[in-house]
Amino acid sequence: MSSIAVPPAGGEKIGVAVLGATGAVGQRFIQLLEGHPWFAVRELVASDRSVGKAYAEAANWLVSPDIPPDVAGLPVKGLDARLESPVVVSSLPSDVAGNVESRLAKEGHRIFSNASNHRMGADVPLMVAEVNPDHAEALHTQRKRLGSEGFIITNGNCTTITLVLPLAPLHRAFGVEAVIVTSLQAASGAGYPGVPSLDLIDNVVPYIGGEEEKLQSETAKMLGGWQGGQFRPAPFPVSATCTRVPVRDGHTESVSVRLRAKASGDELIAAWREFRGRPQELNLPSAPKHAVIVRDEQDRPQPNRDRMAEHGMASVVGRLRPCPILDWKFVVLGHNTIRGAAGASILNAELALAEGWL
Amino acid sequence: MSSIAVPPAGGEKIGVAVLGATGAVGQRFIQLLEGHPWFAVRELVASDRSVGKAYAEAANWLVSPDIPPDVAGLPVKGLDARLESPVVVSSLPSDVAGNVESRLAKEGHRIFSNASNHRMGADVPLMVAEVNPDHAEALHTQRKRLGSEGFIITNGNCTTITLVLPLAPLHRAFGVEAVIVTSLQAASGAGYPGVPSLDLIDNVVPYIGGEEEKLQSETAKMLGGWQGGQFRPAPFPVSATCTRVPVRDGHTESVSVRLRAKASGDELIAAWREFRGRPQELNLPSAPKHAVIVRDEQDRPQPNRDRMAEHGMASVVGRLRPCPILDWKFVVLGHNTIRGAAGASILNAELALAEGWL
Amino acid sequence: MSSIAVPPAGGEKIGVAVLGATGAVGQRFIQLLEGHPWFAVRELVASDRSVGKAYAEAANWLVSPDIPPDVAGLPVKGLDARLESPVVVSSLPSDVAGNVESRLAKEGHRIFSNASNHRMGADVPLMVAEVNPDHAEALHTQRKRLGSEGFIITNGNCTTITLVLPLAPLHRAFGVEAVIVTSLQAASGAGYPGVPSLDLIDNVVPYIGGEEEKLQSETAKMLGGWQGGQFRPAPFPVSATCTRVPVRDGHTESVSVRLRAKASGDELIAAWREFRGRPQELNLPSAPKHAVIVRDEQDRPQPNRDRMAEHGMASVVGRLRPCPILDWKFVVLGHNTIRGAAGASILNAELALAEGWL
Amino acid sequence: MSSIAVPPAGGEKIGVAVLGATGAVGQRFIQLLEGHPWFAVRELVASDRSVGKAYAEAANWLVSPDIPPDVAGLPVKGLDARLESPVVVSSLPSDVAGNVESRLAKEGHRIFSNASNHRMGADVPLMVAEVNPDHAEALHTQRKRLGSEGFIITNGNCTTITLVLPLAPLHRAFGVEAVIVTSLQAASGAGYPGVPSLDLIDNVVPYIGGEEEKLQSETAKMLGGWQGGQFRPAPFPVSATCTRVPVRDGHTESVSVRLRAKASGDELIAAWREFRGRPQELNLPSAPKHAVIVRDEQDRPQPNRDRMAEHGMASVVGRLRPCPILDWKFVVLGHNTIRGAAGASILNAELALAEGWL
Questions:
Q1: What is d(CA C241, CA C237) in angstroms, rounded to the nearest whole number?
Q2: Do D64 and B305 touch (CB under 8 A)?
Q3: Which residues, 6+ apart, have CB-to-CB distance to A341 below 8 Å?
Q4: A-B interface: how many C-beta pairs under 8 angstroms?
Q5: Which residue of A has its CA nearest to D202?
């Protein structure tokens, strides 16, 4: 495959294959790409159980009343299928994502993945489009390794993306030195069927396997740099406790931070409100106007009220107060299957296309 | 009223008046005192709206299928009624509790109160029976001030009690220097009607008015001492974020602590497992065998599974891990209307009776 | 006020006052009227507590992240305010709606009301725009009585509207003779604060005051006619049991019907699928393309998946099976605060404007 | 095995094997048999995944803080294990229950089963102990067929048991002619993991596979008789709609009935309040004092408040009103995993022991 450019208005859209199309995040991919100006879903890939069925038959569609009609009749392909779409978005489960994504990248596909397998790869960008687009430099190294024009760009865990959006402007302006975070995560973060009802009716589960480690390692990689041919993680610790609460969508996080430079609350709020990145400069189709929204009400953000801010593409911050132990504390909320997953991949794909990386 | 002693087996029980009897905590008082070996509910006090009605008619009974038959027919008295019961337990709302409790104490009643009004009083014990029974020394000062045999002993906010039970043995053994806590609190903590359904179906509210301040001030008072005629609060800071989650009963808290003395995880667990107080030594009727329970499973404690441990009278701890920023982190859960409210007052009353303070 | 016509594209919109603007349905009015081609919210009325405040300060906004900016700054007026807007939509609570609406109608305002007070009035249309637009004939009588160009058109209870949409085509085609219905109603039907969380976490409440009677009387009035200067209710009985379940929005109803003419399942489905009314013929701005949607899946309709079908303006039917006792049974779902309340009033207002009744 | 008698007080208890021990109902069996005067759990059987593990390791214990200590260490046996316990209680899933139960019955075990496989068997009692203990006559036929002292007694589906308890006294006194029922069923009815959280947070699912058919066929068998060597089902139709709601435990049912004999509401209530069966006459250990409880409050029964009435062994009835189409309507609630499952089997086993059928 050769280089790919933004299609002209009215021109033919770029084909996209969705890996893991029947899952909760796969459904969001399909929903968010409906009517996209640049991309069109052309291929669907899922596990053996679904192969050969029409998508409408294979998927237990959850995210809206109806499957977009263009997609409902597409046949589901298997994990080993050869694909035609140049762009591939992936929300495969981690037990299969690693190999499938590697093969497709070697075959020349541009992969934008939610799967965790390649996130910590030595030449694989772990990218939040507003935060570390410069990590795309690693693609040269990666393409050389793969011997292909294809590549893999990952985005982080949903909890990490929600957190790193407000941390990034603080880190740039004041230097983050330590973060203690407790998350209250939504059921959709575990996919479908995911968490049994008997675990979440009148209950909280104070543990999510692997999640706390990801918050530490992914935050450090995202807020670090690419220097001398390798990623240099940001050196500060993140201490996380991750819990599951009876909410459909939207992860809430209670955060305390220590900053290198002393800063006032107004300065923090200004850093958030003024935060802009390449997606905003390029006016990308899925870019939120503000990637960080600050709410003044004392009881916000709340998942039910705030998760759809900026069409689900923003982190919503509130309750900024001094922390008597570290420096500041606040609450942040993000839509875990939009900004925290499918929307993040799509925004990365848009950025890659607009920046000419494809 | 003169001094009161533990009634002999089969002897006449000590009369108890319940203030705020129709509320969520008032109902727990009535439920927990059913069949109590020493105490019997004889009088019920509630707001004007209920006065003169039979209790069964006035209360929207929530905590079990039926109101205990001895209580169902009792008439509800008003806030200004003169009472006959020597012992008074109170869960009045704070807009009226202050004056009513003060008046009754002056009239000679022994008050055990959940209301927040007198908790920080200069001569009022804020007591968790296993933690700071020595604060009863303040009663001499208080009785002198009141000119009465009556007194007020308060217990803390539900979130604080849940937290202070596992903090106390750590503080004694290793010295607590700092605490960062995020709570996930149950709906019953706001009473009835309390939190609207539209705020808690598929939602979390990351704010509870006044709660964060109470966690700081009450923890310090409880873990401090009474010296030279006044309370000396423990000097460490508590940084709290309090949230409301869709759970009926049981507050979950994610806690990070810094300790003065270095300690291993096994030492912390041993401190919790060996923790005993006067209620256990005296084998009080409502005393849990263990006031702190440690669960080994990685996904515990959970409100639905663990809140009724020790009949709702224990704090249940789990997930002890090193905190890379402070020293240790863990999750603790307590039943907010039992150990965190009505049960705490009753245990204080039992302690007072057994120790001869009445 | 004189007769009002549909404003030309780009022309000045017709001013609307929202009564009960801070409540759950009032918020839906404001949300649904944002960007409306014919109407613009100009005045807000609420109870004393809110009067004089800016709307953003008075309302606990629940239905989306932010209040529409044009409305956020409007001052809240009191129940006795004189209004300038010719069109008034009302979701006042029934303890005040009756008098306020009567006064405003006499003053010339065209009222479209959700309140129950005037629904059974002898000359007041109880109108579902697709079902009984011919009841508008009663406006002549009503206007004469009021001595004004103003009038009141009501829409039904949310549960009734959801039910009557699929009943209407069955009644026309086959004659409904009896209906037994059990509803599973959402929390928002009780407004805000409405149902306490302690009544709906891990619980169902099998009673909603007044609701069962309304289902009987309102269904009969809507499916009846206006003849000889009075309403003639449809003669069949409706036996209802109404319950409240832990759902935010969307009433689900389990329905059994007896029909006069024998009909096959396919004929019932055809009657639903072919059902069109004046809103569809006139292509009104808020008209659903299909007021009754039929789902083929065996486990639909579901509130979370189906309530937003047709932007919340349709009744969604599924699970049609023979009933061995009556004739047929099915499940129907409708969005209670959109089609069941605010959307129904707005659609009535659009119909009135398009038909020249204003 | 020879005949088994009630053990004397202090004598050795009768060993019980629990089939399907790790599931939601299996856990209830273990919980309810803790401290039982006649029976003791000695063997546990579950699917391959659990075989060889200690129970505490194999089960995800949900129903209380801790597994009874006598059971926690028992090894889990496989489906093909030979068992020593004379009494076997079963909550195996239906894909394996049929064969396993048949084999064990042939080997001489007395089986009390929740599984649906044998419920409609031509010589297998489908028994609710208060309702149709006379169906035990079929055991002669069954034992002859099996060539063994062993047998299978089943109890019904949880929804059916809840319904049949209040129907039985009405049928005896007045003759039931038709029943229309809509159920609102709890998540635990689907076992663990069972229903995904994403299907029940802010949602209702109006379909439960196979449930509606069971309500019809099982009710007819239970309320019919055993005559001339075969079961004669009661001839009336039951028209059911079964839905799943966000409740942990407790099925609520909205019921309309037609009766042969005209009866007043007071007569119905009297029939329920006076309803007694063999379990009450024999004062069996698990027998509720009243198998049907009538609540007078207009908003009861509710799952959270009423499911534990009579330790979960009663059907709780409320809201009796005339039905304008059939004759009467009411709401009934039962605990689906206690009276609707494990408790029903245990009560049948107690009855069998006390009546000398073992």
A1: 13
A2: yes
A3: A25, A28, A91, A114, A155, A158
A4: 132
A5: A248
Size of interface C-D (CB pairs under 8 A): 132
* Tokens (6 digits) for C255: 């329905």
How is domain D14-156+342-355 classified at the CATH fold level? Rossmann fold (3.40.50)
Distance, CA of A270 to CA of A167 (rounded, Å) = 13
C102 to chain D, minimum CA–CA distance in Å? 33
Could you report the per-residue pLDDT of B230-269, keeping only the tens digit for each? 999 999 999 999 999 999 999 999 999 999 999 999 999 9
A170 contacts A268 by C-beta, under 8 angstroms? yes
pLDDT in tens, A16-62: 999 999 999 999 999 999 999 999 999 999 998 999 999 999 999 98
Domain B14-157+342-355, CATH number (from 3.50.50.60, 3.40.1410.10, 3.40.30.10, 3.40.50.720): 3.40.50.720
Residues of B serving a catalytic function are 158, 251
Neighbours of chain D (3+ CB pairs under 8 A): A, B, C
- Whole-prediction pTM: 0.97
Please compute the mean of the pLDDT values over residues B122-135 and round it to a whole number: 98
Please report residues of A whose CB lies closer than 8 A to that of B220: none
Closest approach of B257 to chain A, Cα-based (Å): 10
pLDDT at residue B2, rounded to an integer: 59
Task: Report the neighbours of A using a cutoff of 3 or more CB pairs below 8 angstroms.
Answer: B, C, D
Q: Which residues of B touch C24 (CB under 8 A)?
A: 198
What is the pLDDT confidence band of residue D282, given thresholds at 50, 70 and 90? very high
Contact residues, chain C, for D201 at CB < 8 Å: 304
- Chain B interface residues facing chain D, Cβ-Cβ under 8 Å? 61-62, 64-66, 201-202, 248, 304-306, 308-309, 316
pLDDT at position A234: 97
Mark out chain A residues that contact chain C at CB-CB < 8 A: 61-62, 64-66, 201-202, 248, 304-306, 308-309, 316
* Closest partner CB to D202 (pick from B65, B201, B306): B201
Q: Which residue of D has its CA nearest to B305?
A: D65
pLDDT band for position D25 (50/70/90)?
A: very high
Token look-up 């249940």 returns B316
> How does pLDDT run across A105-138, given as a tens digit for each residue?
999 999 999 999 999 999 999 999 999 999 999 9
Q: What is the DSSP string of C190-226?
A: G-SS-SBHHHHTT--B---TTHHHHHHHHHHHHHSEE
Which region holds residue B293: left if phi is over 0, alpha if psi is between -120 and 50, else beta? beta
Which residues are bridge partners to C316 per DSSP? Answer: C293, C333
Residues in chain B within 8 Å Cβ distance of A210: none
Q: What is the pLDDT of residues B314-344, one digit of tens each?
A: 999 999 999 999 999 999 999 999 999 999 9
Tell the CATH topology of C158-335: Dihydrodipicolinate Reductase; domain 2 (3.30.360)
Residues of chain B with Cβ-Cβ distance to C63 below 8 Å are none
Q: Do A14-157+342-355 and A158-335 have matching folds?
A: no
Contact criterion met (CB < 8 Å) for C195 and B197: yes
Distances (CA, A) of B189 to A254, A303, B250, B292, C233: 20, 21, 9, 21, 49
CATH number of D158-336, picked from 3.30.460.80, 3.40.50.360, 3.20.20.60, 3.30.360.10: 3.30.360.10
Q: Is C12 exposed, middle or buried (0-12, 13-18, 19+ CB in 10 A)?
A: exposed
Place of tokens 């700071």: B132
Nearest to B308 among D61, D65, D202 (CB): D65
Question: Any alpha helices (H) in chain B, and if so which ranges?
Answer: 24-33, 55-58, 69-72, 94-106, 138-146, 158-174, 197-200, 211-223, 265-273, 278-281, 303-306, 343-355
- Can you give the residue ranges of every domain in chain C? 14-157+342-355, 158-335
